[in-house]
Design brief:
By secondary structure, the chain is of the alpha+beta class. It is flat. The longest helix has 12 residues.
């Protein structure tokens, strides 16, 4: 951990379509259901990747990804992070 630092990430896409989606997680136990809902909102034949951001204090990250993956399939890259 470093104080007074900044991390910047840049991405370049030759050809891409972007779509955003959000889901409420009412409780830790409902995290997978939120993932399933997100997966349904994002599912598409040409979906290649999903970038997920969330509050890490009230979300089971593994269950969230499992829910998304159950809908979009194993060939879609899922990345992102949870804030602590």
């Amino acid at each position: 951990v470093y104080d007074n630092t900044l991390v910047v990430t840049g991405s370049s896409f030759k050809k891409a379509n972007f779509k955003s989606a959000a889901a409420e997680v009412p409780s830790m136990e409902k995290t997978k259901e939120a993932g399933l809902a997100l997966g349904k909102k994002l599912a598409a034949k040409d979906l290649k990747a999903v970038f997920v951001l969330g509050c890490g204090l009230e979300i089971n990250g593994s269950a969230l990804i499992e829910g998304i993956r159950d809908v979009v399939g194993a060939n879609v890259v899922i990345t992102g992070g949870l804030a602590g």
